[in-house]
Amino acid sequence: MDSAAAPGKATSDQQDWKIGVDIGGTFIDFCALETRSGRVASLKVLTTPDDPGAELMTGLSLLAEREGLEPAAVSRFVHGTTVGINTVIQRRGVSLALMTNAGFEDVIELARLRMPDVYSLFCSRPDQLIARDMIFGIPARLRADGSEIEAPDLEAVAAAVAKAKANGAAGIIVSFLHSWRTDIHEVAVKQEIGRIAPELFVFTSSEVWPVIREYERTTTAILNGYVHPRVAGYLTALEEKLLSRGVTAPALLTKSNGGVMNADEGKRSCVQMLLSGTASGVTGAAWLARRAGEKHILTLDIGGTSADFALIIDGEPQFGTGELVGEFPLHIPSVSVSSIGVGGGSIASVDAQGVLRVGPESAGSTPGPACYGRGGEQATVTDAMAVCGWLGHSQMAYGQLQIDVGLARAAVTRLAEKIGRSAEEAAQAIIDIAISEMFVEVEKLASRAGVDLREFTLMPFGGGGPMLGAFLAREFHMAKVIGAPRPGVVSALGGLVADLRGDFIRTVFTHLSDEAAPQMREALDALALEGRNWLAKQGHAGAATLNVSADMRYVGQSFEIEVPIQPAWIAESKLGAIEEAFHAMHARLYDFHDPDGAIEIVNLRLSAIGAGPALEIPVNAREDGEAAIPEREIPVFTGKSFEWIGLYRRDRLRPGSRFAGPAVVAQEDTTFAIPSGAHVEVDRQLNLHLTFSE
Amino acid sequence: MFDPLNLQVFANHTRAAAENMAYTLQRTAHSAFVKETEDFTVMLINRKGETFGVPMGLGATWYPGLTYTRAIAMIDDYKPGDVAFTNDPYSCFVATHAPDTHLWKPVFYDGEIIAWTGGHIHNTDMGGAVPASLSRALTEIHQEGIRFPPMKLVNEGVFDEDILKIMTTNVRKPDLNIGDMKALVGALNTGERKILAMVEKFGRQAFLEGTEVLLDHAEAQARDLLSAMPDGTWEFVDYADEDSVEANPCRLKLTLTIRGDEAILDFTGSDPQLGSSLNVPSGGDPRHTMLLVGVYYVLYTLNPKILLNTGLTRPFTCITPKGSVLNPIAPAAVGMRSLTCARLRSVIFGAFCQAVPEKLPAAPAGNNCIVNVMTTDERNGRTVIAAVNPVVGGGGGMPHRDGTNGSGADAAYLKNTPIEITETEVPIEFVKYGLAKDSGGAGRWRGGLATEMAFRVFSPGSRITARNRDRSFFRPWGTLGGRAAGLSDMVLNPGRDDFQRLGNIDTTILQPGDVLEIRSAGGGGRGNPIERETWRVAQDVARGYVSSEAAERDYGVVIRDGMVDEAETEKIRTARSAPTGHFHYGPEREGYETQWTPEAYDLLTDLLQGLPIHWRFFTKTEIFRRMKGRVGAEGVAAAFADVRARFTNMPSPAEARKEAAE
After folding, report:
1. Topology of domain A500-610, CATH
2. Which residues of B touch A107 (CB under 8 A)?
3. Dihedral over Cα of B596, B597, B601, B606: its sign
4. pLDDT-based confidence at A363, cuts 50/70/90?
5. In terms of CA atoms, which chain A residue is nearest residue B384?
6. Is the pLDDT of residue A6 over 50?
7. CATH 3.40.228.10 is the classification of domain A276-495
8. Residue B608: which residues within 8 A CB-CB, separation 6 or more?
9. How does pLDDT run across A520-530, given as a tens digit for each residue?
C-alpha cells in the first residue's frame, strides 16, 4: 500500500471510497481511492478463472483488512470484466441461430474476403460463432432506399425457429439487408419469433448497432448474443454478491469505448464491454497524462504474452472500429489499441539457420518465464532482463512473485551455447529483438495515424511496460518517458475515473447538400434524444455532453473518415462548415484534399457523456530538487559490459528527487529499467519524468 | 561489421520501414485501385538493385523478389532527390504491363548511393484502345496505352512537367495517375528517411552488410526448404481455358528439377506467345519475380518465418523459351498477364506438390474474377461505372484442414464491397452472394467452396466486364485421391426460359430485368473422399456445402433424414476402389488430353519451335482448326501437313531452325 497523503484510518461515516477493478489474465487489480483523505490503495489478487467474481470478494476483504474499508462507504464501484471476451476466446458462448435474407446466408463466412496472412496457402478464417446449418435464409428484401421488394415470409420464420430450437438454439440474431435504413423487417421477424418462441432471446442487428455494411453489423450483433447469457448471469450474481457484502453503490462496467455503463445496460449491450480491458488502460493513462500536463502520449502496456499500444492525442484516446475480439472484428466504437504477441513471457529460440528469434511462442503466465520458478525452462524476455541484472532486486506483483536469477541464467545459457555466445550477449540480443518487434508495430501505428512520435511522451504500464518502455522510447527519439506511480494498476484506475459514455449512430448515406439537410436534422434529433435517454437510464443527473461527428468521404471513395462537427452546423444548415471540417481532416490524415470534390456523409455519430467523478488526489508540496540516493549499487549488463548502477526504491522517491540513468527503480508492482543518458525527475504526483540527452 | 546476432533486429527495422512506406502510400493515394484494391507494392532495394524488404500487411504479393538492377542501369548520373520511373514492359522487364508504373529513388549517404527505395502503382488507365487499358482481345503492346521507358520523373526534387503533360494528354484519368504517382514519390521519400535512420542506428558499414545478410538469410531459408525435399524431376501441365478470341486452350508446362538445395523450373513445352494480351513479359530472366510468385507461396507456406526478398529467388533458375507465352518478344500484348499468372502459379503448385505431397494443398480455384458494371441510374439518367465484388473460389484441401471457402490461398489478398454499399451507389439489385453447393472438390479434406453472385440490372445496354475469368473448362485439380473442383460459370437469367450459359467470355451486355449469375471455380479436394469422417460429410450436408446426392456419389455416405445411414454407408464405402494417380483433373481435361496427348503437345511444341516467332501462334491456331477427328501426335502431324499445304509460303520448320542456328 502506498499513499500520497498521510495515512489515517477513518470510520464509515467519514469514508467515501471509489473503487476501480480490472481483471487480467493472471491478476485482478484494484485501485481504490478514499476521497476524504486522498488515500490511494492498490492491490493485486490472483484470478479465480473457475469462479469468476470470487476474487472480487477476496479483494474487498483485503481492502477492509488493510485499509479499514467499510462496504457501505463505497460510493462508486467500477468493474472491468473479462467474462465476455473470454467467452468468445474460449468459445464457451451459447448456441445461436441467425436469420437473414435468403440468398445471403454466407454473409459471416465470406466476411470481407481479405485474410491477414496473404502469402500462405493455408490462410483460413476462424470457425464462425454460428455454423451454416444454424443460419436461415428468410425470403425478404428491402431496397437501399428502404422500400420493400418482398415482405418477410413468416412461415419461413416459423420453420426456421422450429429447426433452431430442435438444434438447441438459446437465442436468435436477426439481421436483414438495409436495416440500417429501416428496421421494419427485423422488427417484424423479431415479433414473430417472440410470439411463437418467447423462451428464445432475440437481438436484431439494428438494435445492437444500426450501421451500414451488412457483415460488420451482423457480426457485431452475433458477438452480443453469443456472450449475452453468460455475461448477464455473471452480472446478476455480481450484484447479489456486492449487496450481500454491503456494497450498495450500483456496479458500473467499463466499456470498449473507455467509458462506463450500469449493470442493467451491460446485461443487454454485452458487446459494449468486450474490449474494456485495453480501453480502460488507455482511459487511465489519459487521466494520468492530463494531470501530469502531457498532451500527446504513446501508451505501452506489456503483459506476459503481448504488448498493447495506443495513441493519446491532445489528451484524448483515439477511437476505431474493427478491433478484434479473439478472432472476430467488433464494429462498435472502441478505444483504438494495437497489439503484438510479444511480452515478458515471449520465448527466445534459435532457428534452423542459426538466427536468434523472439516469440511468437510464449510461456504465458503458466509456466511463465524460467525465473518465476514455476517450471518454465525456456528463456524468455523477462529471463533476459534478469540475466542482465535489471530484474531480481525486489518482489514483483505485490509480493506474489519472486525472481530466481539463477533459473533465468540457466535458461538463457542453454540458448547462448547454441550460438556460441555468452549468456549476457544472448540476453542483450533477446531484449533488442523484443524491442525491435515492438518497433515494427509502433511504426505502423504512428504511420497510420500520421503522427511524429518525437512529439510524444511514452507512458509505460502493466507489469512489463516499465521494464522495456524507455528502451523503446529511445528507438523513436521520443522526448520523454513518464512513469506513473502505480503502473501495475492503470487499467483499474481507468475505471475509477471514467465517464459514463454511450455511443449512437445513424447511417444517412447521402450527398452533403441542402436537400439532405432535413434528413440530417432528423437523424441528429433522434440521436440526441437517444443519448439523453441513455444517460437518464444510467441514473445520471448532472450535465450531459453530446459530442457529434460525421463519417464522410469524397464520392467514389470507399472508406470514411470521422470528423467532429458542431450540432449547430446541422441544426442551422451550415453545410459549408461541415465541408470545411471534412476537407481539413482529409488534408491532415491524407496530405491532400479536393476542394471541388463532392462529399458523401455516411453516418452521423453521437457520444453522450456524463462526467465521471472529479477526483481530488492531493499533491505533495514541491520539495526542492535533491539528488536521490540509491539504496545500493547493483551490477547490470548495459549492452556491452557490466556496470555498477543505482538501485532506487520507488516508495522512497520524493517529489523533486533527481537521478540519472542507468538505474533501476524497484517497486511493488513493477521494475523500471532506466537506460544511460536518461535524466529522471519526480513530480508532485510522484510520476517519474525521464528525459534524454543525446 | 554486421553482428549476426542483430539479424532479427535489422530485419524488423527493415520491415518497419517497408510498412511505413506502404501506409504512406495507401493514406495519400487517390485512386480506388491503390487505396482499396491495394494493387501496389513498395520495397527497400540494396545498392545492387535487389529488393531486401517488403511490407507484409499491405499491397500485392507479387514483387518481393523483384530486382531493379536493369532499370537502374538504364539511367546515368543519379542525383539526390531524383526519382526515375517506367511502365514499359519491354524496356527492362521491371514493369509487367502498362498500367503498372514503377518508380525508384536513390538514397544518398555521404555522397554515395547506399540503397534505393522503389515501388509500383497500378494506374487506373494508361490510355490505349480500351478504358483501363486492359482487354484480352488486344494483340500488340501499342494498343495497351502510352509507355515510358526508364527516365527521370523527378529531378532533384522537382517533377518533370513535360512528362506529366505527356501523360495528361494520353490517359483517361490523368488526375488519378498523377495523384497516385505523387503519393508513391511520398512513400519513396518516407523509405529514404527510414533507411537513413537505419544507417544512423546500425552504422554505414553494418547497414550495407545488413542488406546483404538479409538476402543471404532468405536464401539460406529457401535452400534449407529445398534440401528437405527429395531430389528429382517432376512435370506438371495446366491450361487456361482460352488463349485469345480463338478460344483454344493455353497450355503451360513446367518441368521442376530439384537437386540438393537448388531447383530448375523449365517451362519448355508452354504455348508460343499468344495473339492476345495474356503474355507474361519475363524477358527470359531466370529469376523474374513474376515467374516465381507461386514459389513464394510454396516457400512461405512451408516456413511462415521466411524472409521475403530477392535472396529467396537465388536457388531457383527458370527456363522460358524466347517467343513463348512466358517470354514474349515485343510487340506482344501483355495487359491481361494476370490470368496467365494464375495458371503459372497452378503449375508451380502442381509440380511442388508432387515433390512434397504431404505438405501442400490441392489446387486453389485460381480464377480471380474482377467484375465491373457500367449502367444507367434510371433516377437521374447518370452513367454509373463501378467495381462489384470479386468472384473468387476456395483454397485447395490442405493436409489437415478443408480448403478455405470463397477465397483463400493465392486469392486471399482480395476484398469485397458490402452489398448495402453497392446497392446504395449502383442501380443494381443483388439476388444472391454466397457459397456454391457442391463446388468444392471432394476429398479426405474437401476443397473450399466457390463463390456465386447474381444481380439484376434495370437499364438497357448495361455493360458487364468480368476480367480474369478462367476455369470454366479445366478444373482446379485434386490431389492424392481428392477430386477436382466445380467449374466456374456465367449464366444469363438462370432459372428462366431464356437462360443462357455464357461460357468463358469476359464481357456481356444486359437488358432491363436481366439477371447475371457469375460463379467461380472451387478448390480441389485432397485425399480419398472415402476416408473423410462420416460426421464431417453429414455436417457438410447439414450446412448446405454438399448435397446428399453428392455425399453418396463422391463420399459414399448415405444420409437419410439428416442422419448417416451407417450400415448402407459402410457397404458402399467398402465396395469403392481406392483412387489412383496423384492428380484428379476431371472429365473435361481427361477428355481433352485423350486427343491432345503429351506426345501431341511434344510434337506441336517441336514444330512451332522450328518456326519464326510471328508464325507460331498463327500456326497453332490453324493446327487446332484441323484437329477435328484427329488424335495424338499423328493427328498433329496430319493437321500440320494440312496447314503447310494451305499456307505454302510458311517457312519449313527445319529451315527456320537452321537459320536460327546460323
Report:
1. Dna Ligase; domain 1 (3.30.1490)
2. 434
3. negative
4. confident
5. A556
6. no
7. no
8. B272, B616, B619, B620
9. 999 999 999 99
